[in-house]
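Case study.
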Amino acid sequence: MPHTYQFARPALTVDIVVFAMDFAGRDETDLQVMLIQRDLAPYRGGWALPGGFVRTQETLDDAARRELQEETGLRDIYLEQLYTFGALGRDPRERVVTVAYYALVNLTGHDVRASTDARNAAWFSVSDLPPLAFDHAQVLDTAHQRLRSKVRYQPIGFELLPERFTLRQLQRLYEVILDRELDKRNFRKKVLAMEIVKETGEIEKDVAHRAARLYRFDKRRYDRLMKKGFNFEI
Amino acid sequence: MPHTYQFARPALTVDIVVFAMDFAGRDETDLQVMLIQRDLAPYRGGWALPGGFVRTQETLDDAARRELQEETGLRDIYLEQLYTFGALGRDPRERVVTVAYYALVNLTGHDVRASTDARNAAWFSVSDLPPLAFDHAQVLDTAHQRLRSKVRYQPIGFELLPERFTLRQLQRLYEVILDRELDKRNFRKKVLAMEIVKETGEIEKDVAHRAARLYRFDKRRYDRLMKKGFNFEI
DNA sequence: CCAAAAGTGTTCAAGATACACCCATGT
DNA sequence: ACATGGGTGTATCTTGAACACTTTTGG
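After joint prediction, the assembly is written out as follows.
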């Protein structure tokens, strides 16, 4: 067999850290992660990141999207490669290298339970996680850090919001991710000055107080700004 | 064979983009990359990034350091994982996924030619590269972008300088990486205000003009600043 | 004494921060 | 009428940008 690799090969997997923002408890907005309860050894019954083996005829991105769809029912979501983990003992069975991804979802509009195979999938707050299988705690932590730093110079936070959102929701999202309070007036001033959100003319419904205006992310404008060497900073 | 992966596996390699700064031509400071001339098919005789297959009993970082040492003689240098490339046709022989790294070296103090196996290694200016094997042009470009953005918020640039350097060298380094001119007075003011470089008391030797003061990077101070949530920005 | 690069301050504009009250709506 | 969160402006401080001349050294 000419031109082929003669050594034993590590196995190759992908794992995905799926983040979502929970706005349910009005004031207790928090960041959530999707986990899968394993039904096979090792770590049977334990919680792990969605993921699985990479096939020889699919790209890494394709593998990540396929596993995500198969295990959680989520599709067409923001997905980005995070880091590749290759420590020796990370899988007790054999040598497995994993290419980790992270994904951002807005919960409204994606039905996780619609999946065929999602019976074991569940959301957890990042601040209250169960013990995780393999080195997944480390993977998750790396993803969390990445999200925190990336959100400061790219508007990926919008991926976590519904299409129409209030400025207050946007602010809470940044507060949760950056883990500090932001001044309401300064925050609104800055976001509006950037002109990357657009008023829809609509307002919130069914709230027991003055209804907030709904905005949406103006990607066209953002892309134009980015090309001119623009820096998104909150 | 219980607990083992039943599908065919992609092969796994590491490739390393080694950057160095060339201060030789006084005014024509430029960024260089190390390439290896291949002596096996495919792309025999072509230029490629140093790299090779990952063994089952070494971590990815270890594989990168081993290949670097074997192919270029470089060791104990700054090395960081970049991105994992897994496009389907990237290696004409078979499916190969590569974990790319980038490395930073200061040329004084590392003798590339000392290596046993470095007869085919050479430095190229990033602005004047030969055609590259596989998808290495893309890998190199990704590394270059990463260097440009990372240098803005972490002082990794110092890895490209000799232990003692002049502020002018530091400025030229940033100018080359960021690809724009910086104001001398403002640059010095900012760098000195950060207090992350320390005067050594020594000065340049053998220059045909006023000799510049030599500084060194103060890592202790930098680490302390980082812990307090400090942001390095040029 | 000339060429070459080192070294040094001030002014101005823009952006960041701090801060408190009135408004609209549902119950 | 009250409770709840929405919405708004100003003053001050900090930071970044622009800018030109004198000093030192070797040849």
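Observations recorded in class. Strands of chain B lie at 11-22, 30-37, 47-48, 51-53, 78-85, 96-105, 121-125, 197-203, 213-217. The mean pLDDT of chain B is 91. We will return to this complex in the next lecture.
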